[in-house]
Write a structure and sequence with these properties.
It is a single chain. The chain is mainly beta and 239 residues long. It has 2 domains: 13-136, Jelly Rolls, CATH 2.60.120.10; 139-236, Sandwich (Jelly Rolls). Helix content is 0%, strand content 54%.
């Protein structure tokens, strides 16, 4: 039996701190919704906009896989492992917090906002040595097809994390369709998140910033009803 859960954009948690405007698909910070705690191993999906010159000060994490996907602007990263980097649209960043890591994320510009997705995944190994990685992707590789941007395999396409998870991004012209077939075990699910435009996933229409989680299915049939960009996150439902 197939299962789905729909999260409409307007139903997400919202926190506006002035310098940070954040929408939470799942419970986070002061937003608590017992019906939206996680989707399998996907714990956090935050849609963040940070004002010029502002950012997240140095703070700790442990035993979590943290992925950042910039959508607009430049984000400066610093961490306790000595890494300093700029990530921008077309990049993906991953940190395995493991035994513990401190990091900060700052808007690299004073007069421009930065938008990015902050995603947390529960790991399949605890207390690993912390690690940092980032990758610049070829945006042309997602035009009317699914571009793999994350996997559990260091030798596979995209970045890797300590979890049996696969991320794909697509930027489709209106009317174009694709089929997503599961990469992992039968107990995996896929969470589709629309960055912009309108798509239909297995008969369910989704608009900008809507999310749809599906599991106990064989595949996803996706059609772009308008020009659209979207993210697919396949994660274990039992972990």
């Amino acid at each position: 039996m197939a299962y789905t859960i729909l999260h409409k954009a307007e139903g997400r948690g919202h926190a506006n701190h002035g310098w940070l405007n954040s929408f939470h698909t799942f419970s986070f910070g002061s937003y608590y919704n017992p019906q939206a705690m996680n989707f399998g191993a996907l714990r956090v999906l935050n849609d963040d906009t940070v004002s010029g010159g502002m950012g997240f000060g140095r703070h700790p994490h442990d035993n979590m896989e943290i992925i950042s996907i910039p959508l607009e602007g430049d984000l400066e990263h610093k961490d306790s492992m000595g890494n300093t980097a700029i990530i921008r649209k077309g990049d993906i960043q991953a940190m395995s917090a493991g035994t513990g890591i401190y990091h900060s994320e700052q808007n690299a510009h004073e007069n421009e906002q930065v938008k990015f997705l902050q995603i947390w995944i529960y790991p399949n190994q605890k207390n690993v040595e912390p690690r940092y990685d980032q990758l610049t992707l070829n945006l042309a590789d997602r035009h009317n097809r699914l571009q793999q941007i994350l996997s559990p395999n260091p030798d596979d396409e995209g970045i890797w994390i300590y979890q049996n998870a696969w991320f794909h991004m697509g930027k489709f012209d209106q009317g174009k369709s694709t089929k997503y077939e599961f990469k992992g075990k039968a107990h995996n699910g896929v969470y589709a998140f629309v960055l912009n435009g309108e798509i239909t996933v297995n008969g369910q229409k989704l608009n900008t910033r809507d999310g749809l989680g599906s599991w106990d299915i064989d595949a996803l049939e996706i059609t772009a009803d308008t020009e659209a960009e979207f993210l697919l996150m396949e994660v274990p439902m039992v972990f």
